[in-house]
Amino acid sequence: MITVADICSFLEAFAPAALAAEWDNVGLLVGDRAQKVERIMTCLTITPAAAAEAIRERADFIVTHHPLPFKPLKRLTADQPAGRILLDLIRAGIAIHSPHTAFDSAVAGINQQLAEGLGLGSVLPLEVAGNQESGVSSQGAGEAGVVGNGRFGDLRPELLLGQLAERLKQFLKIGGLHVVGELGMPISRVAVACGSAGEFLDVAIERGCQVLVTGETRLHTCYEAESRGVALLLAGHYASERFGVERLAEVLGRQFSSVKVWASREETDPLQWL
């Protein structure tokens, strides 16, 4: 029998909580560790549609990239959307686990997958985790035996910015993205950081990168990148991470072959290109 504890144990090994940001809320957020698990759904965010799907499909366990709850709750009522979702899932006996930023930084996490999907070589973290001595590196090491936030690597041969943008669109299966920089700009070193990660601009420049690939960032970060001669490829927060939870469903399905695992079929990007 597969239990909530079994799934949590695997996810902790796959994306160790020690890799998560200090502000994050990762791990088992709702549920009974002794509960039997026969059906797992992964998703990027537990939206009302995703929650309804999990209940309708009789899921026992949701692995959501974005935590719910994220911040401490003083009360749990149906007066607010998050409270209503949590109450519905609790009534349905569905456990919730979030690996979030630990999954971003894990050895086989979203940023590593994104770097590999772009064809980068010699991939390393943009920022080395400060807890390397704790043994985390044995769970998720880069090529030099280190783990941390984001990734950067080299393109061989180099590409023009416009060519790299097309490669990114193909990998993420999206029809458009935002670009800061000249499309004819030669690119040989690339930084990647999924989600909303404009704060990595400085370290990307320190690592000698000509472009930072992320989901979204502030307008002023775009101006700053432009003024410093560094390109940005902004694929959208959803697109930059959704593929990761789809692949996580495949990983869980292989690990727990007796369990039905699927990535939510109902959640969609709230932002659309027209």
Tell me what you see in this structure:
With 274 residues, this protein is an alpha/beta fold. The chain has nine helices and 13 strands. It has a six-stranded mixed beta sheet with strand order 5-8-10-11-12-9. Strand 11, helix 8 and strand 12 form a beta-alpha-beta unit. The protein is elongated and about 55 Å long. The relative contact order is 0.16. About 5% of the residues have low confidence.
Q: How far is it from the N-terminal to the C-terminal residue, by CA? A: 48 Å
Protein structure class: alpha/beta
Rg value: 19 Å
Instruction: Provide the succession of SSEs.
Output: HEEHEHEHHEEEEHEEHEHEHE
Which range does the strand content fall in? 15-25%
Mean pLDDT level? 92
Helix share bin? 25-40%
Q: What is the approximate shape?
A: elongated
Low-confidence stretches: 132-144
| Structure summary, number of beta strands | 13
List keywords for this structure.
274 residues, alpha/beta, six-stranded mixed beta sheet, five-stranded mixed beta sheet, 13 strands, 33% helix, 23% strand
Short description:
The chain is α/β, with parallel strands linked by helices. Helix content is 33%, strand content 23%.
Question: What is this structure's SSE topology?
Answer:
Blueprint: H1 4-14, E1 27-30, E2 39-43, H2 48-56, E3 61-64, H3 81-91, E4 95-98, H4 100-105, H5 110-117, E5 121-124, E6 127-128, E7 148-149, E8 151-160, H6 161-172, E9 178-180, E10 186-196, H7 201-206, E11 211-216, H8 219-227, E12 231-234, H9 237-255, E13 260-263
Parallel strand pairs: 2-3, 2-13, 3-4, 10-11, 11-12
Antiparallel strand pairs: 1-4, 5-8, 6-7, 8-10, 9-12
Helix pairs in contact: 2-3
